[in-house]
Structures are given as structure tokens and as C-alpha cells.
Specification:
By secondary structure, the chain is an alpha/beta fold. 24% of the residues lie in helices and 38% in strands. It has one domain (7-135): 2,3-Dihydroxybiphenyl 1,2-Dioxygenase, domain 1, CATH 3.10.180.10. Keywords: Metal-binding.
Amino acid sequence: MEIKLSQTFIAVDDHDKALGFYRDVLGLEVRNDVAYEGMRWVTVGSPSQPDVAIVLEPPIADPNVSDADRQAAAELLAKGLLRGVNFAVDDVDATFERIQAAGADVLQEPMDQFYGVRDCAFRDPAGNELRFAQPKGA
């Protein structure tokens, strides 16, 4: 039996701002853009991983959710307490410089971690934590 990751989901509060970051800053390709019942899902992915997708979705993708739950999700998103994604890169320092130059919110400058990677971290426009790592010595 083989199991592989196909999709992961990241909550965003503004799909156009998210696209400006994921497509224009990170260089991910847009694979799908779907609207349904007042909501929107945009699928992006790395050109080097055609079988793995990141779906940018509303904080709560349910048209029947209560206003209180919708507000709670928006507050968690604003605090950066929802999802995050870790990316593998071939040059953490160059990746950091490019993303920082685009004005992204820096959480951690590149540093060597005791568990064998050099990594850095940013927040996307919605507040999600994104980490970028390469194996130490690479």
C-alpha cells in the first residue's frame, strides 16, 4: 500500500493578497481557482511537485457555520494560530532574502537548528506561519 500527500489546506482571509504572495513572491503556480456559494478556493503548487497542491481556502469553508464560529476562526487566523506549511528549499539564505525583500513579515531569520536543518520563517498575508528549510551543510 502506498500513501502520498496530495493536498494540504491553508486558511486565508483575502485570496487576492494570498495569490500575490504564494504566486508572485514564492513562485508557486496557480492550478485552480473555484468559487462556490460566496466562497473561494485557489489551488497552488510548486512546478517541481505537480502531484502536491496547497489549497488556499476560507477560514471556515462551510456556508452553514454560525456567525460566532466564523468570527472565532477569523480571530485565530489573525493571531497566526491556524495552519502552517514547511517548505524544502535548496538555499535558505537566498530564499530568505527574496521573501524579505518582498515585504513579508519575518518570524525567524535563517539559523542552524540542532535537528539538522538551516531554516527561516515568515507569516503569509493572512498570518499563517511558513517555514523554509534545507539540510545543514547543503
